[in-house]
Amino acid sequence: MQQVATTLESKTGTPLFTERDWDFNLLSRVYGAIEQIADGELGLDIYPNQIEVITSEQMLDAYASTGMPLFYKHWSFGKHFVRNETLYRKGWQGLAYEIVINSSPCIVYIMEENSATMQTLVLAHAAFGHNHFFKNNYCFQQWTDASSILDYLAFAKTYVAACEDRYGQDNVEKVLDAAHALMSHGIHRYPGKHPLDLKSEQRRQDERRAFAEQHFSDLWRTLPKTADGPKRDLDAERRRQLLGLPEENLLYFLEKNAPRLAPWQRELIRIVRQIAQYFYPQRQTKVMNEGCATFSHYRIMTRLHESGQITDGSYLEFLHSHTSVVFQPEYDDPRYSGINPYALGFAMMEDIERIATTPTAEDRAFFPDIAGCGDAYGVLRDAWANYRDESFILQFLSPAVIRKQRLFRLVDDADDDDIVVASIHDENGYRAVRQSLSRQFDVGRQDPDIQVADVDLAGDRKLILHHNVVDGIKLDGKDTAKVLQHLANLWGYDVKLLEIDGGDTIATHDGSPTQAFR
Amino acid sequence: MHIIDRRPDPGGKSLANRQRFMRRARALVKKAVQEASGARKIREVDDGGAVTIPADGVHEPSFHSGQGGGVRDYVLPGNKKFVSGDRIERPKQGGGSGSEGSADGEGEDGFRFVLSRDEFLELFLEDLELPNLAKRQVLGDAVEKRHPAGFQTSGPPSSLSVGRTMRRSLSRRIALRRPNPRELEALRNQLAELEGEMGETDRILALKVEIERQERRARVIPFIDPVDLRYRRIEVTPEPIARAAMFCLMDVSASMDEHMKDLAKRFFSLLYLFLTRRYRQVEIIFIRHTHEAKEVDEETFFYSRESGGTVISSALTEMARIAKERFPADQWNIYAAQASDGDNLSSDNARSVAMLRELILPMTQHYAYLQVGRADFERDDGVFARQETTLWRAYQELLRPNLPMAMRKVNDRRDIYPVFRELFERRDEPAEMR
């Protein structure tokens, strides 16, 4: 049987499979066929793959721990598990066909229930599309270390378990609850400034002294001293500087500066922070990541079909699943629940391919760099590597896609009686729609901008936070109070959050610790 | 590229998280379980199932933008009729894009999930304890009975089943055509005969080859192979502590209406459920009575109609008889639950009480009397206190501290569970009065 199969494979134009069932040999052959296209034609560059076949039960388990194969234990994962389980058992929600993890080797979970066609699709989508994106996109390169994440999670799991044994489940849970509440604000968004080492510090001082010597002029001495310059509270400024304020990474600030935390509590906060940081690039690149994977699987499946390696029937099965993935309900459709990242990403990437090969005059005006350049996959690979959702949309959303999706922009000003249609898919609107959509996918705008502004460690130790209000949108009061409660518990003293809009404080929230951690 | 089959891996990776969640939401879940059990058919109580708890209790807060206010700017797909500058009336309730806030499903009012049967029962019967465990203490927990339960492929040599092993060996030998010693002997004799006669050398040679072949076969195929071995399997059952007999006594005379029967049934079901959690083996005996008592099956017990007067002692006599015949008190834990509307033939009360005191209570672990009332019964907070039934008064006089007996009144389906809990609540003194 094995013999027959290998001879069949070498003959092009013979389908890899005709049945629904699959086995491990078939998976390897399918993988080989996909690899030829992905490598030869699309030029994808991937981490080695580790494909794991799992049951639906195990898929539910994976869901609960955000897909990671191992994770520390916490009740909130149990909550997500029971919800997904209920939805699944009642038939209200299907399970994903795969889960892929940004690690090296790249772990791809595939479900045993999938048909042979679906396994082919899943391999093309996850093992090649997502994998290429993880390896090459700058956000992932900058912020995650794919080769060590599994080891770190293993460490986190054993560390949390050890803390539970040593300090009790309840105490660990309190810290984790509080840290989870601040997780969205436990991220370094920019690399930040590192303190100089001694050598650079000296070099800088030498340079400055040399500069001062070169430009020395005795005349400066004769200028009268300004008596009433801007008065500055040097103490406060120095205090803030010492603590590295303002600081937008709240978990980092607490880990380093909260006065009453024990070392193991700081380490727990650090674990939550590291994991939040690991997932941050995924939040920034939903459209691109899914678009890259969807575009890749579409190309690969089409090519397999063209070369006769999958049958017409399989191709139709694939198209059925593909079209439901990239379906974008319109805004007035009851199924509408926001912009589908698969649909937008796929549409934009197909359009980039079109612009690169058969551009119109409009495309030439909008995209002079890439229009008609001929190397569509080269342009796409460059985009996949160097953009995130926000910049990708701002750069590549073409008038053709805006027209096709019939995108329009609304402005909802609470002071106005009506909602205004600001721009639509026409000559005057393309740029405004594009900019607005790009902002919509900017994680930096989705999360409110909250920073630690000041704390008087010598005084009452009250922690002052600022929320820089954008567009007059305030925080949700109920949740903010709860999060501040957690924050105060970690900090150990009172906290105060000011919502500041253009220099004016428009709202304040307070929190006091109820249970100081021991 | 590697392919790894994870399917055989042990499942239940989320079990620990699930338990943590249950622990966290315990109070909420417990309340939901009790409410759910009221709405559910009594037979389905132990199936487990979906419960809904308020989402607030297990909410995970985060900093995020509020619903109304400010200037919001967003892009939607599928424009049909708008041109720029159009004004749309704001939808009621703030509008907004709707995609914020509940992306995680947190916006729901209730959090709905499915409990397993064990989780459900554990919460349902939490803090309940069987009263009067004297018998268990006297006999100890470790009374066990060993009885044969088939055969197994491994075990100590002492439990080797020779008959079974030989039977398997024989069938294997036949199947593999191992030469029988007699056949071999016959061949050898034949050879000796031929050699003695100095017969044809061809035949002698053929015979020799044949004999050698058979001998080799006999060597290669063992007489008893390890695969033949069979050992006796012994199962150990705790005895008799872990078994209980539950007597359900019910008045089915005309004065008992459907509502009352339903109440009784719910109570019996709860008791059964409770006993099955505590004992490995629970027998139920249904005794229904009018002026005469009969042991019946469950269907007849609850659904068939009967008319006649009410003589409770008849049921007690029947119970005593059955217990004596089939459930001797030194081997069984006997529980009895009696449901009645309290209308007994007045001349029978004294006799019933005497029977209870002398015959029934000494052998039972616990005797529960449930007086079921009409659905339209007004609570006795009126001007005139309601007259107690004669049976109630008679039983009440019987009650002593230390007597394994309890009695309660129930009028509404809602009260069944609280009353049940009250009866079996973990407490120090074995019985109490009311």
TrEMBL record, chain A:
InterPro entries for this protein: Spore_V_R, SpoVR-like_C, SpoVR_N, Ycgb-like
Pfam families referenced in this protein's UniProt entry, alphabetically: SpoVR, SpoVR_C
Domain SpoVR protein-like N-terminal: from-to ranges: 21-444
Residue intervals of the SpoVR-like C-terminal domain: 448-501
Protein name: SpoVR family protein
Organism encoding this protein: Jiella flava
UniProtKB/TrEMBL annotation, chain B:
Pfam families on file: DUF444 (PF04285)
Family: Belongs to the UPF0229 family.
Species name: Jiella flava
InterPro entries registered for this protein in UniProt: UPF0229 (IPR006698)
Signal peptide: none
Name of protein: UPF0229 protein J1C48_00960
Compositionally biased intervals (Basic and acidic residues): 83-92
Region of interest (Disordered), residue spans: 82-108
